[in-house]
Write a structure and sequence with these properties.
- This protein has 189 residues and is an all-alpha fold.
- The protein has one domain: Hypothetical protein, domain 2 (Endonuclease III, domain 1, Orthogonal Bundle), CATH 1.10.340.30.
- It has eleven helices and two strands.
- It has a two-stranded parallel ribbon with strand order 1-2.
- The longest helix is centred in the middle third of the chain and has 21 residues.
- The chain is globular.
- The protein starts with 13 loop residues before the first helix and ends with a helix.
C-alpha cells in the first residue's frame, strides 16, 4: 500500500500532480523555459491551468519549443497557422503577444545577457516565501513584486503581462514559493 502524498493542489489529475510535484515553485533559470512559462501563463488568463497544461505539448510544438529566436521570427503565415491550430488556445491577441514577447526577450538578452538575470531581479535573485497559509483562498493573486514586474515588462514592450499573470508566472518559476501548510513541498522548504 503506497503512502498518500499531501499536496496543496493537483491530487485529482496525474498531469497536474506531476506539475505540482516537479515544477511549480521550483526555481527555473533557463531563458527558453522562462519564456515558455510567461507565454503559457499569458495564455491561461481567463482559463484554467488544467486546460493549458493539457495543451502544453501542442503549444511547444506550435511555438517551436518556445525558442525566443524562432518565435520572434514568426510571420503572417505562422500567425495564420497558429490561429488554425485546434491543439492550442486560438486567441489572436495572445498569439500576437507571444510573438511580440519573444522579440522583447531577445532585446533583454542583448541588453543584460539573459532574460533570467532580468526577471529574477524583481525578487533580488531569490525565492520569496510568504507567511504560510492553509487555504488556497488566502494566497494573494498579485504582490508588489509582480506589479513592479508587470510595469517594467510593459515599459519594455511586453504584452499580456498584468500583475496577476506575473504573479502566476513568479509562482510557476519559483520566484515565489506558495506551497501551503500540509503540502509535502511546503515541508521540504
Amino acid at each position: 500500500m503506497s503512502e498518500h502524498i499531501s499536496r496543496c493542489w493537483g491530487d485529482e489529475d496525474p498531469l497536474m500532480a506531476d506539475y505540482h510535484d516537479n515544477e511549480w515553485g521550483r526555481p527555473e533559470h533557463e531563458d527558453r523555459k522562462l519564456f515558455e512559462h510567461l507565454a503559457l501563463d499569458s495564455f491561461q488568463a481567463g482559463l484554467s491551468w488544467r486546460t493549458i497544461l493539457n495543451k502544453r505539448e501542442n503549444f511547444r510544438r506550435a511555438f517551436a519549443e518556445f525558442d525566443p529566436k524562432m518565435v520572434a521570427s514568426f510571420d503572417e503565415a505562422d500567425r495564420e497557422r497558429l490561429l488554425a491550430d485546434a491543439g492550442i488556445v486560438r486567441n489572436r491577441q495572445k498569439i500576437e503577444a507571444t510573438i511580440n514577447n519573444g522579440q522583447r526577450v531577445l532585446e533583454i538578452q542583448v541588453e543584460l545577457g539573459s532574460f533570467d538575470k532580468y526577471i529574477w531581479g524583481f525578487t533580488g535573485h531569490k525565492t520569496l516565501r510568504r507567511e504560510p497559509v492553509a487555504d488556497w483562498q488566502d494566497l494573494p493573486s498579485t504582490s508588489p513584486e509582480s506589479e513592479a514586474m508587470s510595469a517594467d515588462l510593459k515599459a519594455h514592450g511586453f504584452k499580456f503581462v498584468g500583475g496577476t499573470i506575473c504573479y502566476a508566472f513568479m509562482q510557476a518559476i519559483g520566484m515565489v514559493d506558495d506551497h501551503m501548510i500540509g503540502c509535502f513541498r511546503y515541508r521540504d522548504r
